[in-house]
Amino acid sequence: MKKGFDNELYVRLQSEKILERIEKFDNKLYLEFGGKLFDDMHACRVLPGFESDAKCKILLTLKEQSEIIFVIAAQDLERNKIRADFGIPYGTDVLRLIDKMRGLGLNMNSVVVTQYTGQPAADKFIAKLNSHGLKTYIHRKTKGYPTEVDVIVSDEGYGANPYIETTKPLVVVTAPGPGSGKLATCLSQLYHEYRRGVRAGYAKFETFPIWNLPLRHPVNVAYEAATADLGDVNMIDPYHLEAYGQTTVNYNRDIECFPIVRSILAKITGDESIYQSPTDMGVNMAGFGVVDDEVCRIAARQEIIRRYYKAACDYKTGNANAETVERIRLLMNENKIELSERPVSKVALDRAESCGSAAVALQLEDGSFVTGKSSNLMTACSSAVLNAVKTLSHIADEMLLLSPIVLAPIIELKKEVLREDKVKLSLGDVLTALSICAATNPVAEKAMDMLVKLRGCDAHASCILPESDLSVMRKLGVNLTCEPEYGSKDLYGF
């Protein structure tokens, strides 16, 4: 894979920028940390060379100076909001991320449940955290927000929130997704800090959109596609242009709320000149890590196509609205991006047409294609992955990797014990069988070792795949898309 992004350069520049911003205040900075701390697969896909844990590496360089506050909105807990790339609820993701941070020795401060109005799911979540000895805080909706600044910045507004005790110069405020209340938590803390005589500061760290790339650069357009369900739109920052005569890119929510944020900051600090624009508030250095613009442009165009397929499938299954699909389609039209730019899609569709059943195509790192079709024994996804590891390990197609002696009890279990209507082997079943065979069969072991080489590969399915296969493909790191069509007329377990 060609690299378009220098991760080491980025980590160094970003760490330096954050330290520089801390020094601007009384050695106390609340950093609104957007995006994903771990597993930032979107950034990996649009900036080839970006490492999925790059933000975590930045925090590790600042380990001694930082602590982390996690924020989650009560309504997201109540409606069991799902993190799309992992297929897990926001609440579960918070627990997962806390475990990972602790494992790396990062300082976890607490979890804040925001916009609390007595939601039962929030109460249950708080009880679970408390039972594990984690500090939790509840923030209710801020009185007067967003227009009544005098009320917001008062004992009735931010003052009604409990103060979160912190000890480090850098307080990272992060969340599992947008709309969680990161900004409100930062500003609430700022209010309390100033009441205690501490001249603390606020800054925002958000990878996308990248402020020093052009507005219509595919990397920035890909961010719009990724957030199409939120209605985010990239815009020229008018405040920055007016203040400095410099064209920079931000997104609509930050630009729209800037006058309010600036007024709140001025009311808290007594200083109206801290920030002149939303871009000023940011500390993002990702744009300086781009070392091959063309590579990043091509990668981002591919991501936009992937986002279209994802939205189209979600609409087909009732998990998205038509407006989201239309919005991404419009972005594609504006930027002259065609579905045909994703060659693995045509390969999958051609294979499905020729075999008369569901098919999956994988494009390997060398550009070659491998396909698999659905059969009575296994799913198309299972077949494609098996064929891929055979190809990568130069195993003859006719050679059996999975012993019938191993497969028979799995099929028996699914049919007779679990009483599944369909006994077709899912990708998870097949990989389990392969790992068992690898214990005694050197050929199977050789194939097993090739699974890591699928990470980052593109794949396409001729129909919507069951969640069991989608989940395993995500874990393998395969960039899978599906045609927005059902593979059968069944309403359950398609």
User: What's the helix count?
Assistant: 20
Shape: globular
- CATH topology call of the largest domain: dip2346 fold like
Assigned CATH superfamily of the largest domain: dip2346 domain like
User: Roughly how much helix do the residues carry, as a percent range?
Assistant: 40-55%
Largest sheet: 6 strands, parallel
Strand content: 5-15%
Strand order, biggest sheet? 6-5-2-7-1-8
Low-confidence region ranges: none
Which structural class matches the secondary elements?
alpha/beta
Question: Which CATH class of the largest domain applies here?
Answer: Alpha Beta
Q: What is the CATH architecture assignment of the largest domain?
A: Roll
The average pLDDT value, as a whole number, equals: 94
End-to-end separation: 34 Å
Strand segment count: 14
Written overview of the protein:
- With 494 residues, the protein is α/β, with parallel strands linked by helices.
- The chain has two domains: 7-213 and 240-289, dip2346 fold like (Roll); 343-482, Domain of unknown function (DUF1846), C-terminal subdomain (Cytidine Deaminase, domain 2, 3-Layer(aba) Sandwich), CATH 3.40.140.
- It has 20 helices and 14 strands.
- The protein has helices at 7-24, 41-46, 54-61, 74-78, 90-103, 120-131, 149-152, 182-195, 218-226, 238-244, 252-269, 278-281, 293-316, 322-334, 343-355, 380-392, 404-417, 427-438, 442-449, 467-476, and strands at 29-33, 66-73, 82-83, 88-89, 108-114, 136-138, 170-174, 201-205, 234-236, 249-251, 359-363, 369-373, 458-461, 479-482.
- The strands form four sheets. A six-stranded parallel β-sheet has the order 6-5-2-7-1-8, sandwiched between helices. Strands 12-11-13-14 form a four-stranded mixed β-sheet, with helices on both faces.
- The protein starts with 6 loop residues before the first helix and ends in a 12-residue tail after the last strand.
- The mean pLDDT is 94.
